[in-house]
Each structure stands twice: as structure tokens, then as C-alpha cells.
Design brief:
Blueprint: H1 2-27, H2 34-41, H3 45-51, H4 55-78, H5 84-101, H6 103-112, H7 118-144, H8 153-174, H9 179-193, H10 198-203
Length: 205
């Protein structure tokens, strides 16, 4: 009985978040009201407030939901690939495929969250730190394996995050450049920045 109640509560929470994605995508963060999300979720206002104290908490939960999904997919994708160069390629592919699959959610989080105040900025920095640490770990492994020369992996990880973020935001917002152009160019730029030769990049794709 307890498990059934927990599963039902989780299903309600996910329904609220799915509804919030649609409403935020349609109206934008500032124009969205909790009542709009209540109506879209076909839930009671009490149920929404049971899970989330307000609109801000719903938005932050969406940030965490997408970040958790993306991180899980990235880790699963590269787990069985020992080659560091191929890992970069796989990670970029998974990243863009996930953004494409959840484009409405990605657009909300990457574009609408910009300039929404200190709370959102703290959350954005938290997510950036989280993914920079993932990148840094893979770079450290590549250095340890002798695949790349010793570098300041922390700085490089944040530089990569900045490059990926800028390109992906533009792609989500405008659809340009096409993914067929985006992945090879970004991959080559990132790998060349850590000293991987063009021949090795080409050979490992």
C-alpha cells in the first residue's frame, strides 16, 4: 500500500513537470502562472503545491530533471568506450540527440533561464560545474593513459563547456548550424585544443 501511494505521488509529480514544460514553452517563464500548470496537468492546486511550493521550484525541478537525464545518458554512452577521442565524439552525439529529443525543455532551460535572477544563476552555475567535472574526469583519464599531453584539465573542461554551451544555445534557438555540420566542427575544435592531431581525429571517427 505504501509503495502504491509512493508510485502514485511520483506519477503526479512527473505529470506536473510535463505540463510545466508545455506551459513554459508556450507562455514563457514570466507569463506562466501556477494555475496554468494546474490546468495543463489536470491536477488539483493542492496536488501541485504538495510537490512544489511555487513556480520557481517547478522550474528548478525541470533544470534538475534535464541535467540528470543528460548526465545519465552521457555516462552510459561512454562507459564501454576506452578510447578518449571516441568518447568525445560519443558524448557530443548523445548531447545533441538529447537536446533534439527534448528541444522544448532545452529551450526553456538554456534560453528562458538566462537573466531570471540570483537563484537561477546559482542553479546554472551548479549545472555547469557538474558537467565540467564530468569532462574533467574524462580528460584526466586521457592524460593518465598517455592519450594526450598533460594539461590543466579543470580549465580546459570549463573552456569546453563554454564552447559547447554557446553552439548548442544557438542551434536550439535557430536550428543552425545543422547537426551534420555542428558535430564534426565542434569535435575537431575541441580535440585540436588539447593537441590531438587531425589524422588521429579522422582515424577514430
Amino acid at each position: 500500500m505504501e509503495r502504491e501511494t509512493s508510485d502514485k505521488a511520483q506519477a503526479t509529480r512527473e505529470r506536473i513537470l510535463d505540463a510545466a514544460i508545455k506551459v513554459f514553452a508556450s507562455k514563457g517563464y514570466h507569463e506562466t502562472k501556477v494555475d496554468d500548470i494546474v490546468a495543463e496537468a489536470e491536477a488539483s492546486k493542492g496536488a501541485v503545491y504538495f510537490h512544489f511550493p511555487g513556480k520557481q521550484q517547478i522550474f528548478l525541478a525541470l533544470v534538475d530533471k534535464f541535467a540528470n537525464l543528460l548526465q545519465r545518458r552521457l555516462i552510459e554512452a561512454v562507459a564501454q568506450e576506452p578510447d578518449g577521442v571516441r568518447r568525445v565524439n560519443l558524448a557530443l552525439q548523445v548531447c545533441l540527440e538529447t537536446f533534439a529529443q527534448y528541444r522544448s525543455l532545452a529551450k526553456i532551460l538554456l534560453i528562458q533561464a538566462s537573466g531570471l535572477g540570483a537563484v537561477f544563476e546559482e542553479k546554472r552555475l551548479e549545472i555547469h560545474d557538474r558537467f565540467a567535472r564530468v569532462i574533467q574526469r574524462y580528460l584526466d583519464e586521457a592524460v593518465a593513459a598517455g592519450e594526450i599531453a598533460p594539461i590543466d584539465t579543470e580549465i580546459v573542461a570549463y573552456a569546453w563547456m563554454g564552447a559547447i554551451n554557446e553552439v548548442v544555445i544557438r542551434w536550439i534557438y535557430t536550428g543552425q548550424p545543422e547537426r551534420e555540420r555542428l558535430i564534426p566542427a565542434l569535435r575537431t575544435t575541441l580535440l585540436r585544443s588539447i593537441g590531438v592531431s587531425p589524422e588521429r581525429i579522422e582515424a577514430n571517427m
